[in-house]
Structures are given as structure tokens and as C-alpha cells.
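The authors assume throughout that readers already know how a fold can be written as C-alpha cells. For illustration, here is how one protein appears when written out as sequence plus C-alpha cells.
>
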Amino acid sequence: MKESFIHSLFATPIYESYFSKKFSNKEVTFFNQQKNHCIKNKGNIYTIDNYILNRLELKNIKKYIQDCCDDYLKKIICPKDNIKIYITQSWLNYTEKNQFHHQHEHPNSIISGVFYINADKQNDTIRFSSNKYTQISPTIEKYNIWNSETWFFPVETGKLIMFPSSTTHQVDIKKGNNTRISLSFNTFYKGTIGEKKELSELII
């Protein structure tokens, strides 16, 4: 028998990028101060300001994230329509040792992302889960991208991860002594989607 080949069909894109600049003193001070202006989540805390990227202190980071959103649109979505992706809500998350971020998705958004302000490459990860129901589940000896119901990616300071907003994700119980700081955001389309003659036109 000839050697077999396995195709990956209808894959979920996980976009990775790295911020090449060092955070400025103004940005670091801002991140530290915002921890005092948070509310409690199920397993950690997040900022009261949930349009954080509109703050002047983060203008350079916002530009970087917007450039990555444009790149995602061009390389992954590849629209024929004259549309753009823009950032809607954005907020900071703070996770201490033994804390976590519950499993969730991001409704009312196209692409969501997480930009890591402070993360320990040895311990910090983001975990994605399949929301597909599996009726028959044999015991797995060796996990791979086709038989796994969850998959995690290591994260580190300066890393950006973006994914379809419907993708289920979470942060497992935090290990290590650092305060994990991340900036999460949602996006939406702006422009005209669909075809007028097909009665599918949507102007946003």
C-alpha cells in the first residue's frame, strides 16, 4: 500500500504574531496602574475600562494590533467585499498564581485576540476546546490535531494570538509566580458584505 496522507479540512485558524518593540515606561506604568481599576471575573480580574485600546497610552499597541487584524483579513478571510475589520471592545486581564480564566467564547465579534503584556513562557498557555459533540469516544493512546478535543499553545510576553470569536478557549490554573497580564479584544466588520443582486447585501 502506498503511503497515506491526511488532509486537515475546515481548520480553525490560530494566528500568531510577535510585538518587536520593548514596552515603554509609560506603557508599563499604565498596565500596573490599571490593576487598581478592575472588577472580579470568575477566576481572575479585568479592567472596568473595556475600551482600553482607546487610551492614548496604548496608541502604539493599538496600531500594531490593527495591522495584525488587517493581515488576518487579507490572508485568512480573503474577502471579495470591500470590508475592513475594526477593534470594538478591549480590556486588560490580570491572573495571579492559582487563578484561572473560565472557558468561554466572544459573542458579537468576528475575530478575537489576546496580546500578552506579561507572560511566563515556561508556564503560561492558552487552551482551545472543540465544541463539537462526540458520540463515540475511544480511549486515545496518542493525541494529535484530529483526535484531540482540546489543544493548548504556550504564550509569552509580546505574543499576539487571534482566532475566530466563536472558538472556545480558557486559561488553566496559573502556575509560576508572575502576574499574567493580557489584553483581550473583539472586532467587527465595517463596509458592505454580500451581493445586492443575490439579496444578501449587508451595509455596516
In short: Residues 59-77 form the longest helix (19 residues). The two ends are 54 Å apart (CA to CA). The chain has a mean pLDDT of 96. The chain has one domain: 15-132+141-192.
